[in-house]
Amino acid sequence: MTASAAKVLLQVQDLMAWYGESQALHGAGFDVREGEVVTLVGRNGAGKTTILKSIMGLMPRVAGSIRYQGRETLALRPDQIAACGIALCPEERAIFGSLSVWENLMLPPVVAPGGFSVDEIMQLFPNLAERRDAGGTTLSGGEQQMLAIGRILRTGARLLLLDEPSEGLAPVIVQHIAQTIRQIKARGFTVLLVEQNVNFSRAISDRYCVVEMGRVICHYTRAEIESDPARLTQHLTV
Amino acid sequence: MTEQNMLAANTAGVAIHGRRNYLIAIGIMVVALIAAPFFLYPVFLMKVLAFALFACGFNLLFGYTGIMSFGHAAFFGTGSYVVAWTMNRWGLTPEVALLAALAGGALIGLVFGVIAIRRQGLYFAMVTLALAQLLYFVFLQAPFTEGENGIHMKGRGSVFGVISIESDLAAYCFVSVVFLLCFMLIVRTVHSPFGQVLKATRDNEARVLSLGYQVNRYKLIAFVLSSALAAVAGGLKAVALGLATLHDVHFATSGDVVLMTLLGGLGTLFGPVIGAVVATSMWEFLSRFGSWVTFLQGLILVLCVVLFRRGIVGELAARLHIKL
Amino acid sequence: MIIFGMPLALVVSQLLLGMINGAFYATLSLGLAVIFGTLGIINFVHGALFMMGAYVSWMLLQWVGLGYWPALILSPLIVGLLAALLEKVVISRLYKLDHVYAFLLTFGVAMMIEALFRNIFGSAGRPYAVPDLLRGGVDLDFMILPLYRLWVVVASLVLCVATWYAIEKTSLGAKLRAATENAAIVQALGVNVPRLMTLTYAGGAALAAFAGVLAAPIYSVSAHMGTDVVIVVFAVVVIGGMGSIKGSVIAGFALGVIEGLTRVVYPESSSTVIFLVMAIVLLIRPRGLFGRGA
Predict the structure, then answer these.
(1) Interchain CB distance below 8 Å, C189 and A103
(2) Looking at CB atoms within 10 Å, which of A125, B280, B291, B315 has the fewest?
């Protein structure tokens, strides 16, 4: 299925968001089609994480439109948005220290059929199987990242929001995660990614949206970036 | 411009722009103080002033420093018992007795403060409440407080040994003067660099800490100052009513002062005064409903917290775009 | 036998009394700690809920003819429901503010509830009979151990352990523990956190009400039962460590015993000893005995 033939899963239009008095998003807009891996790129503070948080309903104040599978979700509570089929893997991973690895994994409720089963998740991330009963925060950074991803794979959510999954991780683990995302995509999931690591995003993305000062200023397809990688990096230099 | 310079400029700015408003408001207050005894009973007025000072002292802590103490009755009660006892037993003149009350309040405040200051926010409130309750039981059982009866004062004595304040009107003048002095002290404190640090601590403690200020020390000083003022207020109440009772140390009184300050306007200079006036008048008026007063007090507190957090003066100041 | 210059019977009976008080302190501070951990508020209403638990059992007996055993279940249910209503309608609006305001609100509500009950039922205590099954006592050589008091201690222990289990070992408990750490993310992961909070508040209230039913035959039912005990419970929670369930339970029982012992050795201090312990603990270990973090 080519990207243009797939239906639009997520439609963000004219999204504005504020932290208290300060406005972080000034009318961001982009689409994500079913089965794609789309990466939001941009400098620090451009608004990438804010976009993900807005989609998940975690911003104190937003305006504009976010439509998932045609349904307007801007005003919904985070748990209602999760129930629609969107799941977030936050930048800080948010593994709960007072819960065991197993409890962390089982915490989010299943919202739809078609998610990964526990066995499949354990196959993807063998380390987690070994550390089942350990406290969540006794895991290494890489293991916590895998747990955070595994946690949302179980729910059956079709749109996965991943915020800097490769941040601070050793190269071999980063490769593992890239491989995991390819497998997720092969199963028909849709991924919206925020990434600073250009090599990582180039390994998996179908499309890129460049975010600058709270707006999406341009798009690139995979082909465009492969033929000229500088197109991407120019937006990331100071 | 360094942060310290900015704080200083802020102080000056308030002085330039807000000074006229303050002078007007203080002027109104002085006129009201002078005129009031012609319309209302001096004893009632003295009670109002005592609670107004109590609330102003509390507001210094809660409204301006952002710390809530839920045990302020401990200091109020200490003040009233010290005044009643020293005037009865040692024959101290009222102004000296008030100084003793101030010292007593400051001392207890220091002890409570040192114990409680390690905790923040809600913990702090709970600890102060528990400590105050400790003091309540001490007062209940100590022989010199005469337990449930309270201490009845033999008289109001004479200021400096010469000016008799036995008459209600003379006592009122004395109480008003003390109140005004303390109020001016609070005004000066709020507008001083020290006051600016307190306000900054209320708004963003982490920031103030990162600027190199020893925040806990400032908070402790504010706490001791607030407790000293509360003790003076308790002393004034004893002079006014000639009585120190256990109710002065009861946590219900702690709740009263919180309600008054919230109702009047947290973080404003005149809010606590208005709050005390409104609250005390209300209790007098509602006392005919007997035991339902407590219910209404609770209801008013609930309504204030949910709907009316800025309080009377706070709302007024917001509408008029001035600082009060 | 003489200990502390007193006959053994007196010392042991005071210790037992201390254990009973400790049982109430433990159960009440458990509820308070759970509510604080998850909702972040200090629930001054807790004392009033305790009192309501006792009064509802009295009302069930007087007006509906239902005795102690049904009351043990119905009273916590009724009080829990009312508490859920309070949380949903009023308290939840205040979460986004400084939590001091929620504390003040609960203080106001507690005042209202106590005044309401005092006006309707008067301030005199209403007696509530010990259930038939638990009358009488166990004959130890030097004293008779009242069966009901034994029951109170056992029931409280069982309840505390059951609550601990529910929180540490069940998936609902896992949601609660996670929400204590980061409620926003838990909600983003699909858990209905607002409903979880209402449930937690109602649960804490039910615990308090249960303690109230247990208390009714011992202390008689009066409007000021709650306020008498709530500040002591605050001190217990501070000593145990604010968010710690284990801390609350251990501190509750321990302080009850300490209070009981003090009553034997130095009776004048018995009402103040818990606060003194709190002051000392705060100076040595500000987090409380089992508390974590600031």
Answers:
(1) no
(2) B291
How many domains are there within chain C? 1
Paired sense of beta strands A37-41 and A207-212, if any: parallel
pLDDT tens, residue by residue, B25-80? 888 888 888 888 888 888 889 999 999 999 999 999 998 888 889 999 999 999 99
| CATH number belonging to domain A8-233 | 3.40.50.300
Q: Is residue B39 classed exposed, middle or buried when 0-12, 13-18 and 19+ CB atoms within 10 A define those classes?
A: exposed
- Residue of A96, A110, A155 best to disrupt the C interface, most CBs of C under 10 A: A96
Rounded CA separation B105/B257 (Å): 16
Dist. CA A10–CA A193, nearest whole Å: 13
Any chain B CB within 8 A of the CB of C182?
Answer: no
- Alpha carbons C52 and C205: distance in angstroms, whole number: 10
Domain regions of chain A by residue span: 8-233
B112: nearest CA partner in chain C: C279
Asked whether residue C185 carries a pLDDT value surpassing 70, the answer given is yes
CA distance C41 to chain B (A): 8
Place of tokens 């979700």: A73
Determine the structural domain holding residue B279 and report its residue range: 13-320
Angle at B256 between CA B306 and CA B125, to 5 degrees: 75
Name the range with the highest mean pLDDT among A65-74, B265-274, B283-292, C137-146. Answer: A65-74
Domain with C129, as residue range(s), is 2-284
pLDDT, tens digit, 9 for 90 and up, residues A188-225 = 999 999 998 888 998 899 999 999 999 999 999 999 98
- Beta strands across the sheet bearing A8-19: A22-33, A8-19, A61-68, A71-72
Q: Do chains B and A touch (3 or more CB pairs under 8 A)?
A: no
Q: Give the mean pLDDT of B192-209.
A: 87
Chain B contact partners (≥3 CB pairs within 8 A): C
- C-alpha separations of C253 from A43, C22, C155 in Å: 57, 4, 13
B31–chain C nearest CA distance, Å: 34
CA C152 to CA C107: how far, in whole Å? 28
Residue C192 falls within a domain, yes or no? yes
Q: pLDDT averaged over consecutive 10-residue blocks of chain A (238 residues)?
A: 70 93 92 93 90 94 94 94 95 92 94 91 88 88 92 94 91 91 92 90 92 91 89 78
Determine the distance in angstroms separating the CA of C181 from the nearest CA of chain A, rounded to an integer: 7
Residue A74: count other Cβ atoms within 10 Å of its Cβ: 18
Does residue B125 sit at the C interface (CB-CB below 8 Å)?
Answer: yes
Looking up residue C194, the CATH number of its domain turns out to be 1.10.3470
Q: Which residue among C180, C184, C192 sits closest to A58, beta carbon to beta carbon?
A: C184
Residue A81: list chain C partners with CB under 8 A. Answer: 188
Chain A residue with Cα closest to C189: A108
Question: What's the structural domain count of chain B?
Answer: 1
Alpha-carbon span C182 to A136, nearest angstrom: 14
Mean pLDDT of B263-268: 88
Cross-chain Cβ contact C185/A103 below 8 Å: no
ipTM of the complex: 0.90
CA dihedral B297, B268, B74, B67 (to 10 degrees): 110
Domain-located, residue B7: no
Smallest CA–CA distance from B258 into chain C, residue: C104
Closest-CA distance, C136 to chain B, in angstroms, reads: 35
